[in-house]
Design a protein that fits this description.
It is built from eleven helices and two strands; from the N terminus they run E-H-H-E-H-H-H-H-H-H-H-H-H. With 301 residues, it is mainly alpha-helical.
Length: 301
């Protein structure tokens, strides 16, 4: 029985073995990565520098952009480097770092999206209480709670996963280190504790999802009661970008977790992983800025 610490490196799943396609993959990911850096960087800069955007909605959007930068920087640069240098290797510590950062950033983003749904609910359904319930101190506390919960989640899962003995080699069937694929390398019956932790985390995530759904049911009920068409349009404009980001984030993650085993294949797993780990951080800035006049004006200035 070999413990995971006996491996100096893991082998990641390659997108292709053809040199020309490896270079194409490198250029494609480079374009996506630069777009994500530019889009999220501009949003962070605009919100930080324009005092008109120092509101709860934009404060949480700034945090979301930081998380998106972190998540795409965890997976894409290593994949690009592997394609460029025609290798599949990632060091043991590098793999552990990827697992920790992804389990830190993705749950934090899910928690933050839940907080943003609450912010939209307060702004539309209880506007008179907005200054009290969503003051600067309250916003900082909610954001800190989201980041702290993500950190604790990552610490528990990473420590538990990399304490499990591995008996099935060191080949990870994904283009980045991910717990389900690492557990496939473990010895039989040695991963039940981590599965229990994953179920617990998934239950908390489902609770956040229910909270978002209930919030938006009440939001849309309130919006439809607004007498003026202009008022309804303004309320929908506030909510639709967040709803689009939530839908993209949750739908891709749920499909990745719940797709039938009969559909599972290395090629499909790669496509699904790109959809939930690479696409959202790149398109979120576009979704939020597309119809946001305040953000566009701040970016112009």
């Amino acid at each position: 029985m070999s413990n995971s610490s006996s491996y100096n490196e893991f082998l990641l799943l390659a997108f292709t073995d053809t040199r020309e396609l490896q270079l194409l993959h490198f250029l494609l990911f480079l374009g996506i990565y630069l777009a994500a850096l530019l889009g999220n960087g501009l949003i962070i800069t605009a919100i930080a520098c324009d005092h008109h955007l120092h509101t709860p909605m934009y404060f949480f959007l700034l945090n979301l952009s930081i998380l998106d930068l972190g998540s795409i920087s965890t997976t894409v640069p290593k994949s690009m480097a592997n394609s460029l240098w025609d290798t599949r290797a990632i060091s043991y510590l590098g793999c552990a770092a990827q697992v920790f950062l992804l389990l830190f950033l993705f749950p934090t983003e899910h928690s933050l999206l839940t907080v943003m749904a609450y912010d939209r609910y307060i702004a539309i359904c209880r506007p008179l209480h907005c200054g009290t319930l969503m003051g600067s101190r309250a916003c900082v506390k909610m954001a800190a709670a989201a980041w702290s919960s993500g950190f604790i989640n990552a610490l528990l899962h990473t420590a538990n996963t990399f304490s499990i003995p591995l008996c099935q080699g060191n080949t990870v069937e994904q283009f980045f280190c991910e717990i389900p694929h690492i557990l496939k390398l473990s010895c039989s019956d040695s991963y039940h504790r981590e599965l229990g932790l994953l179920v617990f985390t998934a239950s908390l995530g489902f609770g956040c999802f229910i909270f978002i759904v209930v919030s938006y049911v009440q939001i849309f009920s309130a919006v439809l009661r607004i007498p003026s068409e202009q008022g309804r349009h303004k309320a929908f404009s506030m909510c639709l970008p967040h709803l689009a980001v939530v839908s993209l984030f949750i739908s891709t993650a749920v499909f990745a977790c719940l797709k039938p085993p009969s559909l599972s294949s290395p090629a499909l797993d790669l496509v699904v992983a790109v959809l939930y780990s690479v696409v959202p951080p790149a398109v979120n800035p576009l979704i939020y800025s597309m119809r946001n006049k305040e953000l566009k004006d701040a970016l112009k200035n």
